[in-house]
């Protein structure tokens, strides 16, 4: 039997109280829609924090009519991200554990609050394909979704919605730097990096241009978001992904890690073999200093196994580097038909590679190609043998 609207409202209010969940509303010059949004939220909770981000319209006058809610008034406009951070700080001081954020421009519906509360443990997504979503929002959202996937490995349908439920206690020790619209991207990426579950919840959205006032500046704010994503991608490839691999190895041990994350992954043997080949090729190639960045980028681009590709790209670990240089130089001279007139010690200790750069580059690429093909093929054979043994053990 379905609940009535009154029963649903009451149960949501009780649930929010038990969860210690409040609602944070950042606002800047949205006097046409602010009152309607606050009135809608008040149907579910009185625990509301409105952050007036330096509004110059009648926002301050409107807020005087809601003396029973918490307000923060900033003297100057600082940006949506800064307003949200100030709202979260007050929410924590007041003892709240969660905060729902809702935009004050009227694009979101307060009657979706029960969905946010009831769907915390359900995986689903918001429909950004509905007819009244402007093309620029749909494109921007797809763009943002792609980079979020690159940075976290998590696929979401909407990474730009301002209608969210934040776990304040889990986020309080994470450092954030951004102050504008890009904060919402930084927040979910860093949340995912810290093991906090990030998922979409279906909510309604409207873009009524007669009332809604958007302060998103397409060129400036899109550029800021792009710069943030550039920083986050570099950090992902150079620190976050290697960190996660190392943590897994430390937690599981190398044997269990190889069994569960390498041999036990759901990828096909072909994809695993190609991932091995990619890792070996980049690891032996003349890309010193950029191997991790390159291998993870290519693994993401070609949808290969990032863990396997990264692991095998470390084939050129420090003790092995002199051998890689020597073999590359040797092959390069053989390919070019020139004289190979130095010893292993000279190649490793005196960096003869600098004097024979052309030979090294050609030899390195040749060595990388041969090594990748050989290791990829051997990996494929070994994986098939392992599978047969596993099947035989099960049947035996």
Largest sheet composition: 5 strands, mixed
Tell me, rounded to a whole number, the average pLDDT.
82
Any idea what the CATH superfamily of the largest domain is called? Spore Coat Polysaccharide Biosynthesis Protein SpsA, Chain A
Give the strand order of the largest sheet, numbering strands 1, 2, ... along the chain.
3-2-1-4-5
Broad structural category: alpha/beta
| Helix percent band | 55-70%
What proportion of the residues form beta strands (DSSP E)?
A: 5-15%
Named CATH architecture of the largest domain? Alpha-Beta Complex
Please count the helical segments. Answer: 16
How would you characterize this protein structure?
The protein is an alpha/beta fold. It has two domains: 5-236, Alpha-Beta Complex (Spore Coat Polysaccharide Biosynthesis Protein SpsA, Chain A); 253-395, no CATH class. It is 56% helix and 7% strand. It has 16 helices and five strands. A five-stranded mixed sheet has the order 3-2-1-4-5, sandwiched between helices. Helix 3 links the parallel strand 2 (48-53) and strand 3. Helix 6 (135-152) runs parallel beside helix 8 (183-193) and helix 12 packs antiparallel against helix 13. The longest helix has 39 residues, at 357-395. It is elongated. 36% of the residues are buried. The model is unreliable at 121-136 (pLDDT under 50).
Summarize it:
It is built from 16 helices and five strands.
Task: Give the SSE layout.
Elements: H1 5-19, E1 21-27, H2 34-42, E2 48-53, H3 59-63, E3 70-74, H4 80-93, E4 98-101, H5 113-118, H6 135-152, E5 164-167, H7 168-171, H8 183-193, H9 218-252, H10 254-263, H11 269-284, H12 291-301, H13 306-313, H14 321-336, H15 344-349, H16 357-395
Parallel strand pairs: 1-2, 1-4, 2-3
Antiparallel strand pairs: 4-5
Helix pairs in contact: 6-8, 6-9, 8-9, 9-10, 9-12, 11-12, 11-13, 11-16, 12-13, 14-16
């Amino acid at each position: 039997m379905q609940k009535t609207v009154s029963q649903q409202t009451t149960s949501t209010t009780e649930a929010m109280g038990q969860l210690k969940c409040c609602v944070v509303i950042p606002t800047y010059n949205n006097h046409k829609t602010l009152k309607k949004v606050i009135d809608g939220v008040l149907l579910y909770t009185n625990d509301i924090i409105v952050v007036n981000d330096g509004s110059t319209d009648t926002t301050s006058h409107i807020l005087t009519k809601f003396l029973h809610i918490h307000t923060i008034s900033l003297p100057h406009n600082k940006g949506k991200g800064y307003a949200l951070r100030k709202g979260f700080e007050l929410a924590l001081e007041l003892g709240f554990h969660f905060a729902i954020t809702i935009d004050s421009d009227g694009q979101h519906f307060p009657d979706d609050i029960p969905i946010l509360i009831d769907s915390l443990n359900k995986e689903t997504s918001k429909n950004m394909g509905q007819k009244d979503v402007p093309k620029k929002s749909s494109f921007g959202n797809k763009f943002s979704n792609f980079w979020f996937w690159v940075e976290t490995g998590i696929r979401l349908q909407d990474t730009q919605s301002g209608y969210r439920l934040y776990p304040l206690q889990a986020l309080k020790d994470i450092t954030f730097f951004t102050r504008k619209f890009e904060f919402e991207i930084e927040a979910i990426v860093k949340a995912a990096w810290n093991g906090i579950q990030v998922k979409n919840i279906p909510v309604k959205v409207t873009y009524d241009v007669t009332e809604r006032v958007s302060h998103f500046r397409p060129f400036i704010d899109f550029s800021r978001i792009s710069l943030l994503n550039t920083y986050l991608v570099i950090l992902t490839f150079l620190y976050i992904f290697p960190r996660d691999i190392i943590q897994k190895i430390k937690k599981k041990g190398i044997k269990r890690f190889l069994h569960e994350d390498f041999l036990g992954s759901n990828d096909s043997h072909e994809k695993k073999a190609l991932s091995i080949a990619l890792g070996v090729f980049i690891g032996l190639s003349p890309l010193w200093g950029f191997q991790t960045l390159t291998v993870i980028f290519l693994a993401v681009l070609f949808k290969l196994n990032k863990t396997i590709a990264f692991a095998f790209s470390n084939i050129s670990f420090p003790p092995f580097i002199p051998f890689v240089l020597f073999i590359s130089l040797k092959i390069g001279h053989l390919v070019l038909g020139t004289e190979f007139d130095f010893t292993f010690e000279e190649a490793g200790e005196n960096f003869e590679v600098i004097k024979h750069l052309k030979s090294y580059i050609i030899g390195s690429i040749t060595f990388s190609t041969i090594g990748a093909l050989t290791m990829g093929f051997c990996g494929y054979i070994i994986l098939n043998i392992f599978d047969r043994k596993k099947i035989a053990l099960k049947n035996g």
